[in-house]
Amino acid sequence: MPRATKGIESKTASKEQIDKACEELARYGEVSREISSIGIKLNDEIETLQFKALSQISALQEEREQLEASLETFAVANRSMLAEGKTISLPTGKLSWKHGKASLEGTDDKKAIASIRKLKRAKDFIKTSFSLKKAELLKEPDFAKKVDGVVFNPPKERFYIDPVEVKADTPATGKSG
């Protein structure tokens, strides 16, 4: 993650400064790995809970579907005798029939669009949308800067920390090997 840094006052760092930076970088790596470990444990626990919950939900959904089918069979068989209008009122609830919303099923959009155009109703039933090709604008920054409604943000230098993944045994100022 990028972090802001203070200005470096000298071009040469002392042994103590280098050792401190090495210690802090090592600790940064440890903290980052601990954060990752906690996240992994959390994800494992979530996965276990999700599996358990989905198993319970699946069984309940199956039971609900069976109850729905049974209630519908009852309601259809007894509709004329029990229904007041389109509702059967029972002590524990109501069973009713309602008209759903109309829907369209498109099997061939190109054919449908051509047909609507032929019938001269394109303005009423065909939607035209435009969007920017931002990736293309980024390829031409000089042009992008001239476009009203677009703010071109040039790339910025960022500070990154990249610790080694294992604990270092060799001090930064020491010799290896």
**Class by alpha and beta content:** mainly alpha
Walk across the major sheet and give the strand order: 1-2
> Which sheet architecture does the biggest sheet show?
2 strands, antiparallel
Question: What gross morphology would you assign?
Answer: flat
Number of distinct helices: 5
Strand content: under 5%
Return the average pLDDT rounded to an integer. 85
Written as H for each helix and E for each strand, in order along the chain, the element string is HEEHHHH
Q: In which range does the helix fraction lie?
A: 40-55%
Give the low-pLDDT segments: 1-5
* Separation, N- and C-terminal Cα atoms: 32 Å
**C-alpha Rg (nearest Å):** 34 Å
Count of beta strands: 2
What does this structure look like?
With 177 residues, the chain is mainly α. Helix content is 53%, strand content 5%. The chain has helices at 15-82, 109-118, 122-125, 134-139, 141-146, and strands at residues 87-90, 93-96. The chain has a two-stranded antiparallel ribbon with strand order 1-2. Mean pLDDT is 85; it is low at 1-5.
